[in-house]
Amino acid sequence: MEIAKNKEKAREYREKAKALVSQMTLEEKVSQTLHQAPEIKRLGIKAYNWWNEALHGVARAGVATVFPQAIGLAATFDEDFIEKIADAISTEGRGKFNMQQQYEDYDIYKGLTFWSPNVNIFRDPRWGRGHETFGEDPYLSSRLGVRFVEGIQGKDENYLKAAACAKHFAVHSGPEDIRHSFNAEVSKQDMYETYLPAFQACVQTGHVEAIMGAYNRTNGEPCCGSKTLLIDILRKEWGFEGHVVSDCWAIKDFHEGHLVTATPKESVAMAMNNGCDLNCGNLFYYLTDAVKDGLVSEERLDEAVINLYTTRMKLGVFNQKEDNSYDHIPYTVVDSPDMQKLNKEAADRSLVLLKNENNMLPLSIKDYKTIGVIGPNANNRKALVGNYEGTASRYWTILEGIQEIAGDDVRVMTSEGCHLCREKVGGLGMRNDRISEVKGVCEASDVIIACMGLDSSLEGEEGDQGNEFASGDKPNLNLPGLQQEVLETIYASGKPVVLVILSGSALAVNWADEHIPAIIQGWYPGTQGGRSIADAIFGYINPQGKLPITFYRSTEELPEFTDYSMKGRTYRYMTQEALYPFGYGLSYSNFDIKDVEFNSTGLEEDAVRIAFSIKNTGSMKGAETVQVYVKVNGENTPNPQLKGIKKVFLEPGEEKREEIILPREAFGLYDENGRLVIGNGKAVVYVGTHGPDSRSLKLTGVPVIEKVIDVVKVK
Question: Which H/E stretch holds residue 710?
């Protein structure tokens, strides 16, 4: 039994932690509740910095494999592969940690406590940090979150490979510019149906070691000092036994932004008393006075430090090298050929083919003498990696990927086209100062690859250097700057056009959908991403990604950004047709689902088993995600919701028999008190390669298979 699930081993480590903490002075204990915990030489305790990031690779500490951003990994719809990626990340993390410890480097971003994954729900496409998440759906976020945690933490019986941390708890998804004072007001029904499931799954199924609180308030309580969230729900309701960390400098927001306390001492008391064990920041220094003044009991402080040291015990950082196999992972695993190969595979799997009119793609390189690659993301390294990224030894932009395939036989011409968001590229130039170059490249080229979108200088975290929009959020869903104008100029040339979008969120590319014959959503595809995109364009790989978010037509059809009600949001509650729906994504192959069998037409047992056959009727090998949705019939119930996925890989002509199991809970809905209710009635189960919405049917021409299930209330 792996350590994350071994309660007996955890108790053993907790007892050792208690013994160690009992020898500390008050000041020493307080010092250990800060993310930069100093050494306690007399007890043989080394300094340890808790702050490390591993969202899509080990971040901010030198060379590491930079995988596709989390939203791109989510587009794989493949939980087995997500665990494989996370396992690779923690392998590199251990390799780097072992080397750093050897040279007594205890700096920030060099520990084994990874503050990932981000399992917040991407409820609004304007949110700048949405690309850190696994998308808008609670089921998908739960499954991918759990498997990411399991990959990070490993399968060893005695030690964690690294410690994962699910963040940001809870009800957090913008706006970024007011997060330090914002109060997210949410009903219990929305909280339990949408905002909490992924966290609950990470705690109860994934056994995540840590939880990070959010900056905002939820229903009036600051999340990093919320009794409701951290004690009532997390500890008592879910049985969480790990440690809780604040978001960075979030506790000072209690008195500076939220105004729920008057002084720093009151703020640290609120956080500590309500279950926050570790302060990312330095405000917990005030705990010494808070304990002396009776605002915090020393017993509660002891509990916090014991929680923290139990994690360090599980990581094996107090043991001899011979005791822990993870201590023998060499630094040479970092950025190795195997890691680069896996990174390329991840990028391959994340791409989503949004449009392919008349099967324009894939192109044949033999058909072209000159290829034009135009746009601000054609050769933009920043658009490969998103945020919370490491440093790669090599980056492959779209331009470089196409140049590699073209070799010496095909001319590749390029133009930046325009700045990503400003009206000119050169500081002294006139507006649209690259448009003549765009026209010249178009005239000389046989086909154009237009590379548009965003990068993390435009969408990201509040305060990140370079955010040129609304503190990292998007003011709208349009292509920024002059990109639309440049795209229309390219189209007007009359040459065949393929549009590649690099972004971490949905853009309203309505004009492109009407005019451009082929569109690929590339996300922030990692440092091998340019090679994968080029391979997809020229048919060396077959796109297989699905959208983990809805692509809307405009912000005007969305509720206010600050409205946390789920009404009208995401595929589960929207009433209008999407531009591109959640779960949608094309392939160069065709996949037929047939012989669908249900073990029962009623919910008499604990689960409904769905068996089906799927065949690749195309001429290319490929992968398809079979998706199962459940619609519980009744007044004011959500649209059909994703409740099962199965990724299937097939050679041309190959057929496989597969199964998806729907647990009883898949047929339940939460009531206004946040209770899961499985009532008497009917539910419709949909099985297909996309969602059961009208827009997906229009885009694919392939209907889903429906089955009515009788739902019986549990007595």
Answer: strand 705-711
- The superfamily (CATH) of domain 339-549 is Glycoside hydrolase family 3 C-terminal domain (3.40.50.1700)
Confidence of residue 319 (pLDDT cuts 50, 70, 90): low
pLDDT tens digits, residue range 77-109? 999 999 999 999 999 999 999 999 999 999 999
* 632, HSE (Cβ side, Cα atoms, 13 Å): 25
Active site annotation includes 247:
yes
pLDDT in tens, 23-65: 999 999 999 999 999 999 999 999 999 999 999 999 999 999 9
- Alpha-carbon distance of 673 to 187, in angstroms, equals 8
The CATH-assigned architecture of domain 3-326 is: Alpha-Beta Barrel (3.20)
How many helices (H) and strands (E) are present in the chain, helices listed first?
20, 23
Domain with CATH 3.20.20.300 in the chain: 3-326
* Contacts of 18 by beta carbon, 8 Å cutoff, 6+ apart: 306
Question: Omega before 663 cis (within 30°)?
Answer: no
Amino acid at 482: L
Residues of the chain with CATH 3.40.50.1700: 339-549
Q: Tens of pLDDT along 555-578? A: 889 999 999 999 999 999 999 999
- Rounded Cα–Cα distance for residues 530 and 401 (Å): 5
Output the CA–CA distances (angstroms, integers) from residue 694 to 395, 444, 568, 690, 707, in the order listed: 40, 41, 17, 11, 17
Alpha-carbon distance 25 to 478, whole Å? Answer: 57
Among the options 247, 253, 348, 693, which is catalytic? Answer: 247
**Class level of CATH domain 591-711:** mainly beta
Q: Which residues pair with 243 in a beta bridge?
A: 210
